[in-house]
Every structure is written in structure tokens, then in C-alpha cells.
Amino acid sequence: MLTHEKVLHSGVADTLIQVREKYKSILRKCFVCKKFNSRPGTQIMAPLPRDRIEQSLPFAVTGLDFAGPIYVKNSKEKFYILLCTCTVTRALHLELVTSLTTEAFLLAFRRFISRRGFCTVIYSDNAKTFKRAEIELRRLWTVINHPDVKEFCASRGIKWKYIIERGAWWGGFYERIVRLHQHEILLIPKISTITSISFSNNCHFLTVAQVWSLPF
């Protein structure tokens, strides 16, 4: 009756609106209703770094990661694949690496820049990320952090950036490529019957280039 008099004896619709407004404020204060009726929030994503979206030469900004190990027929050693992914064009370059030593990494990296040109920025995982991987991949941090690698990059004006700890999604642009590549490798039956030379040639032919020519 008080609500009906408050709305100046209006009709049923106006009286119900006033009653609902009164009890809506009570429902908003109910913690049980808040718990079951609330909606999950959405994560606010920061914009991508400028060097990943600005126009640049292919492989000027590159993400590096290793895939493997891979076993071949003519060697008892483990082989790895260095995947170089362009952050802007998403172009992919593969280099066969004989081990995870500093010398093997620098040789593969020199072959990469001799074909694709010098990089200005390189992205890669950090130590905490590789701790979750297998024992062989833990050694990669030692390789990247080696003084020879730092001197090689500093003398050529290459800036090396590491993704944050426990933030593998920051390197998603090359982690996804690694996953696709490993999936294709697992589909090849009896890969141990392939020699290292054959495997290297197969990686080279992915660029649809002749043996004596360099891929562009």
C-alpha cells in the first residue's frame, strides 16, 4: 500500500516497477547470488610489441627454438633442428644442428644469417622455461648465454630478448611452429633409417629450391 501511494496511486505496471526496484537492491547485496550469477572476467591483453607488427625485412625480427632430438641412421649422436621464425611474415627457416653445444649453435646461426641476412632482434625462451623441458634442452640456456654467442651478436648489432619466466605463450608465434614440426616428424615411420644428409636435403627442398641455389 505504501508503494502504491508513493507512485501516486498509479496502475499495476508502475507499482510493480517500484516494488522491483526496492527488492533488486536487496538481491544485489546477496553474496550467494553474486557467487552463482556472476560472469567470469576477460583478460585484458596488452598490445603486441612494435617490432612484431611493423613492416620490416623478412627475419629481421626472429624467434629461435629447438626441436628434437632426432635419431638418424649414420650416426649414434642426437640431432636437433633449429627453427627460425620471422615474427612479422611468419616465414620459417630450418637448420640441422649436430648437438646443443655453443659451436654447433653458432655454426647453424651463421648459416641462417648468411642466407636470410642479419637479424636486428631475436626472441627465445629463458632458463625457467627450459627447466620444464627434457634434460637436453636445458643445455640450450648455457649455449645462448655463452660469452661467444653474446660477443657474436653484439659485434653485429643483434639484440637478444628473452620471454618472461613461466610465460611460454609469449613465444607462441614460434612455439606453435615447433609443435607442428614435431607432429610431422612423428608421422614419419622409422625416421632412424634416414641419414643426416638426406634429412638436411629434405629440409632444404621444403623451400622449393635447387640443391646448388640458396632459398629466398
From TrEMBL:
<dbReference type="GO" id="GO:0003676">
    <property type="term" value="F:nucleic acid binding"/>
</dbReference>
<dbReference type="GO" id="GO:0015074">
    <property type="term" value="P:DNA integration"/>
</dbReference>
<dbReference type="InterPro" id="IPR012337">
    <property type="entry name" value="RNaseH-like_sf"/>
</dbReference>
<protein>
    <submittedName>
        <fullName>Integrase catalytic domain-containing protein</fullName>
    </submittedName>
</protein>
<feature type="domain" description="Integrase catalytic">
    <location>
        <begin position="54"/>
        <end position="216"/>
    </location>
</feature>
<dbReference type="InterPro" id="IPR036397">
    <property type="entry name" value="RNaseH_sf"/>
</dbReference>
<dbReference type="InterPro" id="IPR001584">
    <property type="entry name" value="Integrase_cat-core"/>
</dbReference>
